[in-house]
Structures are given as structure tokens and as C-alpha cells.
Amino acid sequence: MYWTLELASHLEDAPWPATRDELIDYAVRSGSPLEVIENLQAMEDEGDTYEAIDDVWPDYPRKADFLFNEDEY
């Protein structure tokens, strides 16, 4: 299982909170790449509910992670 920024971005608009099965269903319905679906299927299903993309991929960068200062523009 591997995540990239491009793959994880397909789950940004997922209906959070969601279970693994709900995320798989969303990925299939939204036309996400096969790698996204395979990554979700590879996750252990313990019945957990994921609150955000950070729960799926903890290294997912947020807007605050970039050094761009919007107040300057």
C-alpha cells in the first residue's frame, strides 16, 4: 500500500466520517484510480470510522504545511 498526494486527493471530498467500506464505495462511484481502491482494500478493517483523510494517510499535507502566506496578496 502506498499513498501519493495525487492518489489521496481523490478522497478529499469523501463523505467524512466514513468506514473503510464507505470509502471504497465512494472511490468506485467517483471514478478514482484503481490504486486508490486497492489501497483502501489493503487497510485493515476493524470497523473503525475515519474522521478525515489524515486518518487514512497521516502524512497528507494540509494548506498550513506550505509556506505560502495568503495575507501578503
TrEMBL record:
Domain of life the protein comes from: Bacteria
InterPro entries found in the cross-reference section: DUF2795 (IPR021527)
Name the record gives this protein: DUF2795 domain-containing protein
